[in-house]
């Protein structure tokens, strides 16, 4: 029991007050004092196991091989530490120095030959797993390229020690870079010396021959001319000989070595970069690196995505451009949208909570824009979303995110209209197409797209309903001109979300449309033109999805309003929209009567 306590409290739960030491490679590493502690514990534990079982064997004199029992006890302690060292949670969440501390404890018996090769491969756990198999699992986890360099080097050191114990040769270049460079340098020096020696001998022989064979009547050449001509000839020969051996430089250099700060590898690294204090000299570079890499990291769906979503969404939403970074607004939007696509529910909940606080109108509108853009991206395929240039949806155009509905209702400003599911200009739609091109054009195969927004539409939409219900008495949110602007954007966002969920086969869609219709109708007599536009837009969106009996039961209430609005509303767009809604309702009633 004392030995188990030593293993658990000294090795597996060491003190966190390690001495700060940076290795020559620039990575954090244990100091020589901290490295000596696990080595001493491993040696003392081995001696304790041997002495304890020798005393027991002398007292009882029944065991034929007392060393076997001591080895089993020692192997059980090593297996306990090795199983923890090989767990995925320990590799990904424990500190670098803590992992190096446990690694030094496991390296001692492997390097000092405290266990034999047979004991190393013998099964010790309840399921028959040997110490070698457990360590191989831990080495495999640590050799992942996405981990930091100290963690990967721990796995390499254990692997080399295991290979040495098993009588095999294994060597990692990353662990021994300096030795290889010096060896290569010595080999090159010896080759150069060997090449230079015979050349000097030939030059001496040539010079002696030239001194003996001088003709006084022949043309005289000086030593300078001879040396220059020989130099030119040798340089030409060397240039022609070396030209074939030259290798072209790679043009795909990402200039990683020239960065002032390393690129973040995890979401926690991005969080540390984003919250760096202004007093940090590298705060600007850290913020830029985090914004550049965060969207890509979120797309990989790391294991801590759900845990870090709420924290990072809150930080990015309130992030300010203190350093005047280029593309700051676009990168901020991409990061928030990436969280919305890959963790939509957690992102929506956090954005709703941020809108409840004392934030500005711009922050609330930006949060609504993220929710609306998330619904649009999840309702279509990723390829279609990329081809439609998602960068067009920016915070600057957040107030016009209802363009998709306006096109469907014929209210698109300008000469744009929808033809075959694509938005084209009038000149493109009316452009003559030759019969030859029309008949030779192959038919496109129909493609089905999964609506990923449909299953979570009710949760996200009703979270916005809950926001309005809990803050309806808050004048700072809904009062005054800012409140009217926020209300119009709020209803527009709900309209887009219901429209995105309309293609999903579920009975909840009609319920969502009915609730939004009733909410929009409660603001039909608002004084603000923007609010009236958003109300009519929401009613037009929900009308196509509501059951006919629900529409017919309430038509006496809102049909007179549409007639009045189509003739006397001060806004031209409201008048057009009211007229279109009346015609649409008449067509729906006619079809219902025919059926």
Characterize this entry briefly.
With 595 residues, this protein is an all-alpha fold.
Any overview of this molecule?
The structure is a single chain. This protein is mainly alpha-helical. 66% of the residues lie in helices and 1% in strands. The protein is built from 27 helices and two strands. Strands 1-2 form a two-stranded antiparallel ribbon. Helix 1 (2-12) packs antiparallel against helix 2, helix 3 (66-85) runs antiparallel to helix 5 (96-111) and helix 7 runs antiparallel to helix 8. It is elongated, with a radius of gyration of 38 Å.
Descriptors for this entry?
mainly alpha
Globular, elongated, flat, extended or rod-shaped: what is the shape?
elongated
Q: Tell me about the largest β-sheet.
A: 2 strands, antiparallel
Q: What proportion strand?
A: under 5%
Name the average pLDDT.
76
Q: Please give the number of β-strands.
A: 2
Tell me the layout of helices and strands:
Blueprint: H1 2-12, H2 32-60, H3 66-85, H4 88-93, H5 96-111, H6 117-120, H7 131-142, H8 149-165, H9 177-212, H10 223-243, H11 267-274, H12 283-299, H13 305-317, H14 328-342, H15 344-356, H16 361-379, H17 382-387, H18 403-408, E1 416-419, E2 422-425, H19 426-429, H20 435-440, H21 454-471, H22 475-478, H23 480-500, H24 508-521, H25 529-543, H26 548-568, H27 572-594
Antiparallel strand pairs: 1-2
Helix pairs in contact: 1-2, 2-3, 2-5, 3-5, 3-7, 5-8, 7-8, 11-12, 11-13, 12-14, 13-14, 13-15, 14-15, 14-16, 15-16, 15-21, 16-23, 21-23, 23-24, 23-25, 24-25, 25-27, 26-27
